[in-house]
Here is the input.
Amino acid sequence: MKEFVSYIVRSLAEYPDEIALTEVVGKQTTILELRCHPKDIGRLIGRSGKTIAAVRTLLSNLAAKQGRRAVLEVAE
Here is the structure.
């Protein structure tokens, strides 16, 4: 899951080398924390949060296929 989100986010970012994705794996839930360059935060969130919502939807569908839950948090 981490590689999947990393691929999508790096494709959208203007500064892909500054993307840091931390994964915390629990029994049923995986939490992904995304840190990026301040100029990329707006680009990744998108208008009214539509871009990050789409990434979260894709992540949730991938996790559901594995019988898990996944949460993506954007840290500033």
Summary: Residues 26 and 68 are 10 Å apart (CA to CA).
